[in-house]
Design a protein that fits this description.
With 429 residues, the chain is an alpha/beta fold. The protein is built from 15 helices and 13 strands.
Length: 429
């Protein structure tokens, strides 16, 4: 398999060309022949014209790539090594939604051949690849894993907006269904990953490794959020406390904030779901989720209290929310907890405007029911800087004074304007 890919007698296919799949496909396409497959015909056409629909990559990233973008199964049949990089979200009840990965498995089942390889990169709970995905492939293809085709799992570690920790620079965890597949999969990824390869002992171990990476971060941020609630009652600034504590060499430098996106705010639920299936109800992990999911309500309540305490008429009060994406300097709005903040503010009958230099207004309207405000007021009762985009960092006290009432609150969730706001009431997590 490896030599066939190197000699370009065989092709590698990436199924799902979003934030994870497209960078992988293009990286491999600089070395071997690649098929980029996505079910969205509009996205496929954009990529054929060297446009990244996710707005993460420049058009130059497509240069020199031996890749064919398609949504045609007949084209996909030409591939011999399949990488699955579709999203794995949760539903409104925080239950894993396996439909995308199951559909990808169905697609592979229709095109896989004797001797082919399938590697899943989508984040799932331990056991999902072998228990949920492989049976679909086997049933549709009539082939048997290990005997007729090989499988593996290699968790994605793409960080949207991060130009430093790119695919090639992050150690790649790989696993296979047997010793032979592990060796082949490792060699294939070594083509594009210069940081090194870590061979996990089993597919389940690799799946679990990915899950706990984000669960650990989620719990640490939950601790910071809980501390920020406590310190707020004490009248001390959390970021000042963290600066002081951070002078110790082994202090972990996490910060409070909204926890959204398609990884940290989602992955822990995959683990607790599987844990519950096995008869164990998670306590620590879910406690962290409760805190982080509750931050939107806490923030909205702080804004409401300030407006009431300063004789504001809630019915006519105006609030500006600056930032709608799930994190800074990206256009990704998936599972953005800013939407929860907006919803909470509106539940108090507050009038809310939203601005964001990166988010697409139509996408926000479709996903969350609100749009980017085209005209800003000059008499806001509160301004929330929810996402610390670089575009906001040049703003100063005079700017906020110009768009707010004298008694307004500037709620700077990530503390980027700490010690810079003097003419208005300043608050941060």
């Amino acid at each position: 398999m490896y030599q066939g890919l190197i000699d370009k007698n065989k092709k590698l296919a990436v199924i799902g060309l979003g934030y994870v799949g497209l960078p992988i496909a293009l990286e491999f396409a600089r070395k071997i022949k690649v098929i980029g497959f996505d079910i969205n015909a509009k996205r496929v056409e954009m990529m054929r014209n060297s446009i990244d629909p996710s707005q993460e990559l420049e058009s130059s990233a497509f240069d020199g790539c031996d890749i064919e973008f398609t949504n045609d199964l007949e084209v996909l049949k030409q591939a011999n090594f399949f990488i699955v990089a579709v999203p794995t979200p949760v539903d409104e009840h925080n239950t894993p939604n396996l439909v995308p990965v199951q559909m990808a498995s169905e697609t592979i089942g229709k095109v896989i051949k004797e001797g082919d390889y399938v590697v899943f990169e989508s984040t799932v709970y331990p056991g999902c690849t072998e228990e949920d995905c492989l049976p679909i492939i086997e049933n549709l293809s009539g082939l048997k894993n290990v005997v007729n085709f090989k499988t593996g799992y290699s968790p994605e570690r793409i960080n949207p907006g991060d130009k430093e920790h790119t695919l090639a620079k992050i150690i790649k965890v790989v696993s296979g269904c047997d010793a032979e597949s592990l060796d082949v999969i490792a060699r294939v990824y070594e083509m594009v990953v210069t940081a090194g390869i870590h061979k996990a002992s089993s597919i389940k171990v690799a799946e679990a490794a990915k899950i706990i990476e984000n669960t650990q971060r989620d719990l640490n941020i939950a601790l910071m959020n809980e501390l920020s609630i406590i310190f707020d009652r004490m009248g001390i600034n959390t970021f000042e406390v963290l600066e002081a504590a951070g002078t110790k060499w082994n202090f972990l430098k996490f910060q409070p904030g909204l926890v959204g996106g398609h990884c940290i705010g989602v992955d822990p639920y995959y683990l607790t779901y599987k844990s519950r299936e096995l008869g164990y109800d998670s306590q620590v992990i879910l406690a962290g989720r409760v805190i982080n999911d509750g931050m939107a309500g806490y923030i909205a309540k702080k804004v409401l209290q300030h407006i009431i305490q300063n004789d504001g008429n809630v019915k006519f009060a105006k609030v500006l929310v600056m930032g709608a994406t799930f994190k800074e300097n990206v256009s990704d709005i998936r599972n953005s907890k800013v939407a929860d903040v907006v919803s909470e503010l509106k539940s108090y009958s507050l009038n809310v405007d939203i601005t964001d230099p990166h988010a697409d207004s139509d996408e926000l309207k479709k996903e969350y029911g609100f749009s980017i405000s085209t005209h800003l007021a000059d008499d806001y009762d509160a301004v929330l800087i929810t996402v610390p985009h670089n575009d906001y960092k040049y703003l100063d006290d005079a700017y906020f004074a110009g768009i707010t009432k004298p008694a307004a609150m500037i709620a700077d969730l990530k503390g980027i304007f700490r010690n810079k706001i003097s003419s208005r009431h300043y608050w941060s997590l």
